[in-house]
Each structure stands twice: as C-alpha cells, then as structure tokens.
Design goal:
By secondary structure, the protein is mainly beta. It has helices at about 1-15, 140-145, 180-185, 205-210, 275-280, 285-290; strands at about 15-25, 35-40, 45-50, 55-65, 65-75, 80-85, 95-100, 120, 125-130, 150, 160, 165, 165-170, 175, 190-200, 215-225, 230-240, 245-255, 260-265, 315-330, 335-360, 360-390, 395-420, 420-450, 455-480, 485-510, 515-535, 550-565, 570-590, 595-600, 605-610, 615-620. The strands form 5 sheets. The chain has a 16-stranded antiparallel β-sheet that branches. A 6-stranded mixed β-sheet has the order 8-9-15-16-13-14.
Amino acid sequence: ITLLFSIISFSAFSQHSTLVGNLFDREAKPLLYATAVLLVPEDSTMAYYGITNAMGRFEIKNIQKGSYILQISFIGFQTYVREVEIPRALGNDLGAIILEPENYKLGEVEVSAIRAPFILKKDTIEYNAGSYKVKPDAVVEDLLEKLPGVQVDRSGNIKAQGENVQHVLVDGKEFFGSDPLVATKNLPADAIEKVQVYNKKSDETELTGIDDGTYSKTINMILKDGKKSAIFGDVTAGVGTNEKYQAGAKVYRFTKKHQFAALAMLNNVNKYGFSFRDYMDFNGGLQSIMSGGGGQIRIGSDNNLPIDFGQNINGLVTSGAAGANFTYEAHKDNRFNISYLGSGANKDLVQTTSTNNFFDIGSFIKEDNLAQKTTNRVHRLNFGWRNKIDSTQNLIFNGGISFTNGTSNGLLNSNSIESNSIINHLNSNTNDRANNYSAKISASYLKKWKSNWKLLKVKGDFSINHDNSDKEWANQTVYFNPTDSSNYKGYQNERNHLIQYSTSTSVTRKIGRLWYGVPFVSGGGVEETISRLQGIPPISENKIDSLSPEFIKQNYWARGGISIKRNTKKSQLSFTVGVENSMLSSRINSRASIVSNNLYFTPQFSWHYEYSTGRQLGIYYYSS
C-alpha cells in the first residue's frame, strides 16, 4: 500500500514542471524585476508567472502539462513572446534570453500593442485588467481576487503583498471617503483599464522627498478612456415568490475635473447594506466599543452582526442603502471631495431552540422561543480638501459627521424540562433603543524650505461623540417544584459624552548626510462624561443610587522631544527621546475630584528594511 501511494504521489507530482531562464540586455547585464508569464493561448489570460532576481533569473513553478505563450516584459524593452510546450523536450531551462531595447520612430508612427498581465514600475505593481478573466457583470472585488499577490477575504477586506490595503483610489482620487469597500463592491470591473498597487508615502515625504518610513498600502484603479467621459452604470431588479424582491442602481460620471457616483440598493432577501465601517460608526467607533459605549448591538457571532460578511442570516431582513460621492479638482493638487452614505435594515426573527443534555440518570431539556424585531439606521457624511498651494506649501482638511440609531424589541419564552416534567418557565420582554452622533475635523499645514531646515508641520484635530442607550426589561419566572414565582422589571439609561482635541508642531532639520533631527511639541485634552440611571420603572420614582453613577474624567497633556532619523531608499531608522506631562482628574457623583499629575519619559525606536520587493524586516519599540 505504501509503495502504491508513493507511485501515485510521484506520478501526480511529476505532472507539474518548473520553467527557468535568465534575462539580459545587449550588454549582458541582468535585468532585475522583469516579469515572465505563461498565457493561455485561447484567451491570453495569465496562468503562471515569475519575477527575475538580481541575477536576472526567473522561475515559474508548478506548471501543468500543456501549451502556453511565454511573455517577458520589462520597461524600456521590447516584449519577448514565444510559444512553449510544457514539459519541453529539450529541458525546462531556456538559458539566456536577450531583450532588445524599445524603438521609437518619429514621423511615421506605427503602433502595436502586446498586453502584459502585470509589470513592475519601481515601487508600483501595475496590473493590466484585461489580462484577467471575470464574469460579465463582475465588480472590482471580483477582479482583485484574480490578481497575483492580492487577497480578498469574505467580508471584502483586501491584502496586497501581505499588507492590509488602507486606501482605494479611482484615477488617483478618493472615492466615498475612506471606506475602500464601497469602491470595490460597486464599481464594475469592465470599467477598469489598470490596477496599481503601491505604498503611498506620507504627505511630508511627497512634499520634501525625505522618506520618513510612513506609508499606507494603496490601490489605484485607472479607468478606461471610454469611461472617463461618459455616464455609465447599471440598474438591476427582480421579484420572486413570497413577495421577495431585490433592486439596485449605480450611476457613474468621471471627467478630468469631476468625479460623481450615486449608489442605491433595496432588498428583503437577507442581504445587508452595511459595511464593517458602517457598523463601527453605529456603535460610536472602535474607541466607544472598547470602552463599553455605543448602541445596544454588540459583536457576537456572525449571525448577529448587521454586516454583509456573506454569512448565513437568522431571521428575515429588509435592507437598504444609498449614497453619493462628488470630487472636484479645480487644478492639479487642489481637490475637494464630499460623500454621503446611508444604510439601514429591519430584521424580524422567530426562532425556536431546543437543547437536550443527557446524564446517567436521565436528560435535561431546555426549549427557547424567541420573537424579536430589530431596526438599524446609519447616516455618514465625509468631506475633505487637499490644496498644494505651491511647490513649498500643502494644506489638508478632513472631516466627517455621522448619526446612527437603532431599536430592538424581543420576547423570549423558555421552559426547562427534566424527566418529562417542567421545572420552570421564563417570560422575558426586552426593549432597547440607542442613538449616536459624532463629528470630527482635522487640519494640517506643511511648509518646505530649501535650507537645512527642511519642513515645518502644524496639525490640529477635534472630535465629539455622544451616545444614548435606553434599555428596559421585564422577567417573570414560575417554578413548579415546589411552586413559586418571581417578577423583576428594570431599566438602564446611559449617556456617554466624549470630546477630544489636540495640536502639534514639528520641524525637520538636516544634521548630516542622510541624517535628520525632528524636534516636536504637542498638547491636547480628553473630556468624558458618563451618566447612568438604573432601577425599577417608573424611571422618575425608583432609581437605584448605587447603580446610577455620574462619572467625569478630564485628561490634559503636553508632550515634547526630538527624533533622530536616518533614511535611505531601502531602510529607515528612527530614535526618539520624548517626555510627557499630564494632569488627570476624575470624579464620581458629588465626591471630590481625584487629581494626579504625571511626568513620564517616552522613548521610541524603529528600524525598517526592505531587502527585496514586497519583503521587509522591521523592529519597533514604543512607550506611552
């Protein structure tokens, strides 16, 4: 049996081959980061690929037997194309391949196009969308799943070269604020000419050219020329049995200066219109969730989340969403954008759960019958302005306003049964209401100089968040052996008000070749009030003082220090010596405030090295 499986395994393994070769220019210099791909002859879609190393050598692994077109591309050189049969009769080492430089003729122009699936342009990977086959009605998310080096999980989150994609741009412009899922889940794939993946440098680096090691993984989708001057989109609708329906509409308009998009959807077939960011905003953001604030919905199992993860949904859901996005670029590097996105869902759930626990002397059964109605609404407005005043000054504004509300009403009947006899019975009625509003704004100003003083940066942030949560419940329990009963009603109303603000200033000075000093100073504050009323209805008469606190916290801080940095094309080194002085005041109810003053040293260290494309090594140390 072992011998048989060994033969089968060897036979299966032997059906896959590795194709290798070496790329050089006319002067016999190896070509680094050239792309070698095998295309399917029938439709020219990519099947396998490899990238040359510093010696100009490429390897294309795990190739199945068959006929392919080998295509080798490198910027500034003519594309190399030949047919290959795998496995090759003469061996799978192609030896040395010489790429000829690209020729350009002036006067009479002859244009011919060979489509490379992807090419490397310095620190950018550029995919040709037409080289990847998707279904006719595919969206951008379906296209991204086909790209080598790009992964999309079931909730639509994107990774490129192993890093989370933080921004998705369309022709270099923002699309619906900072939520990348809106673009990838709605834009049609056939509108995309190219997909660029790169590390977007910080605004400071882009202005001064001094790499500070800060970047965000970004995808930029280049539209086809025919899509840049036309109005395009689609409308879908369908109805079915049991009064089921689903409808959606998308309209896009892109020009050189304007970008407009409108989206809408409505259905009662259990497809949520919420992105994960919608859900976070509904709960007052991540900070509110971590501190226990926000709405009554909490993260539990997938089936309870009002987010479209592609998961199974309990209950019947009617969901809708609508939004619009507008971007205007008066001239290069002077761009304003505003977007609105609203979504909501009504959920009806009737659920019966029976649990049977078996013991040596019998069994214990618990039966639950739940009827629940839930509603959620989210409204989010984002805006931003980026203005490069001149080659030495940059001004950036960003802001947003959101409002959310939700309700949940449920009735639970529960029986506990032992040896075919009811032990107890529970009726539980719950009514929850929650709403949240928040606003935020940030502004930064950058000024570049030509002297050893390279950069001045001034930044300010302000945010306000307010949560209301009202809960009422009534529980009635009946015991049968011996006979007894209990009734309990309760309420809990909570208010959470949070204000945060900060300002910071830093300057960058060159202190040596590749060495920079960055002195900085910043200050800010956090003011938070949490008040709770808990007791037995009616609210005005039966408050339980020990469960109804008012808590006030104030924290004011000032920080200062200096960072020493060394930046090269491949590595960034930073060491920071900092100090923080803070005053923390907290008070509960009418008691005296507790005040503490703290002085801390806050050193930081980081080192980042990119030893090859898409591969980095980093060491980070932070204190706070």
